[in-house]
Amino acid sequence: MLVDGLPFSLKVPSDERHEIQTAMVDMVKQTLNSRKSSLEAAVSTEELKIASLQESQSKLASTVNEAEAALQTQKDAVHVAKSLLADATAAANASWKVLTDRRAEQKTSAAKLARAQEEKNALESAFEAHFKPLTEGASNEHFKGLEPHLKNIDIETSLLIALPSSCAKPKEQRGSFDTVVLTELEKALTAKIVALGEAVAVETPASAEHEAAAFAAQEEYDAKKDTQKRAATEFEAAQKEQSDRESTLNIAKKAVEEWQPQMNAAMGMMDSTKAALEAFELGPLAGFDKYSSMTSTPAEAAAAEAAPAGA
User: Which pTM value belongs to this model?
Assistant: First the structure.
């Protein structure tokens, strides 16, 4: 309605317009002024956007610098964590070798003690069960009970060869040589039992020492292994932090790369908005102002007529 009625209102001088025509011109003027304000606001918006981008440029560069410094710091931390893990792994491996050696020593010592104790018990039992009855008379059964132990005693070979014959004779048929053979056998068996007892006495504390050493080596290895596990966890965490900081740096660099296209777009939008405002002011708005204020008497003539009257 405004567009259709506007020509009929503007062609009438302002001082001759009807109230409706004046009202229509005023409404169009409000509409044009509103359009102008809208364009001016758009220009201001683009100017603020440009100012904000200009301000953000230094911040973006600072963010990149900070991210690069943080990443380098974390790389150094990763290097340190890696070195600590390598040292902890080497220490754990060395401790494991010591533990393996101590376990082997413990096993050997325990086996040696067990053999000595077992042999001593067996020889003592055989001595009580077979030798004493053998001295009282002939008995192949008792000799056979002693025979497995004869290879481990210290006795002359000649006497050892004579033993089966001497043991087979009844007590009353044994001569002086047979008595010597049995006496030497008793000495050898007794000496062997004493020697085994001494071995047990020596190996018992030795075995305990080896067991204690193995236990201490186990504790040390467990501690070194725990240190290695902590170092591995810290190394993994340091690597994760480095990856996160690399991502942060990439994001910061991307923001810097995107800044110039954003600035170019904002400058282009501001130029086009200013051009639209200028074209509007010089075109429709200027034309409307010219015709909306036109009167039936030119301004120069009105001024000339007013001068004499005023005089």
Answer: 0.58
